[in-house]
Design a protein that fits this description.
This protein is α/β, with parallel strands linked by helices. The protein has a single domain, classed as Rossmann fold (3-Layer(aba) Sandwich). It has seven helices and seven strands, in the order E-H-E-H-E-H-E-H-E-H-E-H-H-E. Strands 3-2-1-4-5-6-7 form a seven-stranded parallel beta sheet, with helices on both faces. Helix 1 crosses helix 7 and helix 3 packs parallel to helix 4. It is globular and about 45 Å long. It starts with 7 loop residues before the first strand and ends in a 9-residue tail after the last strand. The model has no long low-confidence stretch (mean pLDDT 95).
Length: 256
């Protein structure tokens, strides 16, 4: 049984990591998927893989900070697949890290615009399309940073992610009467190309440190986080809205 049969979904940040794994899973579960990121080659490869596995997908390369991109994604979902039921707004950056007093205004704006303003732009175009379908599921990828934990050198990132969670709560109340569920997904450390553990100068001690922050003493695979996104997207979460869903391997409770 495909639990997203006849659904249309947008997934941003889909060229790698959590976004890519989620797009593949959504397609496997029957959704027609519009995927987006900045890298066209990787998106084309993803669309081809989904097609080879019997699914349907379309790609749009763009920057989530651009309003034209947000509109184009919804337009593509509507014109190619007939509407929009699910949006997984996953694209984001950690950005420059360090003391806030050393952070440039440009770096601050880069983080806030990529993580928080892009969420506003996604909501601006995705939610009306869901209203037109009679309901839907709107999901933001936030973080335990700025929610259950403070991390030094990450004030801008924490502010952007906490802002997303505040937005989720407001939109859940605003759009609940229209049949739309609005939730945030908060992953723990995940083994993706963007992870600090995969930085060129990261040694084994970095991997060990990050793993040790979690109660499970390991990092997540992108496919594990995708399963939580699938729950929020599906009818299994039909009475779930306005929450910050921690899929963080226990990093929020671990003190060992």
């Amino acid at each position: 049984m495909t639990i997203l049969k006849n659904k249309v979904a947008i997934v941003t940040g889909a060229s790698s990591g959590i976004g890519r794994a989620t797009a593949l899973l959504f397609a496997q579960e029957g959704a027609k998927v519009v995927v987006s990121a900045r890298r066209q080659v990787e998106l084309d490869a993803l669309v081809a893989e989904i097609g080879e596995k019997g699914g349907r997908a379309a790609a749009f390369a763009g920057d989530v900070k651009d309003e034209a991109c947000a509109k184009a994604l919804v337009d593509l979902a509507v014109t190619k697949f007939g509407g929009l039921d699910i949006a997984f707004n996953n694209a984001g950056i950690v950005g420059d890290m360090g003391p806030l007093s050393d952070l440039s205004l440009a770096a601050w704006h880069a983080i806030l615009d990529t993580n928080l303003t892009s969420s506003y732009l996604g909501a601006k175009y995705q939610l009306p399309a869901m209203v037109a379908r009679g309901g839907g599921s709107f999901i933001l990828t936030a973080s335990f940073v700025g929610y259950t934990a403070g991390m030094p050198g990450m004030a801008a990132y924490a502010a952007s992610k906490a802002g997303q969670i505040g937005m989720v709560k407001a939109l859940a109340v605003e759009y609940g009467p229209k049949g739309i569920r609005v939730n945030a997904l908060l992953p723990g450390g995940t083994d993706t190309p963007a992870s600090v553990t995969n930085a060129p100068d990261a040694g084994p001690e970095v991997q060990s440190f990050i793993e040790g922050l979690h109660a499970l003493k390991r990092m997540a695979r992108p496919e594990e986080i995708a399963q939580s996104a699938l729950f929020l997207a599906s009818d299994a979460a039909s009475f779930t809205t306005g929450i910050a869903l921690l899929a963080d391997g226990g990093v929020s409770v671990n003190h060992t």
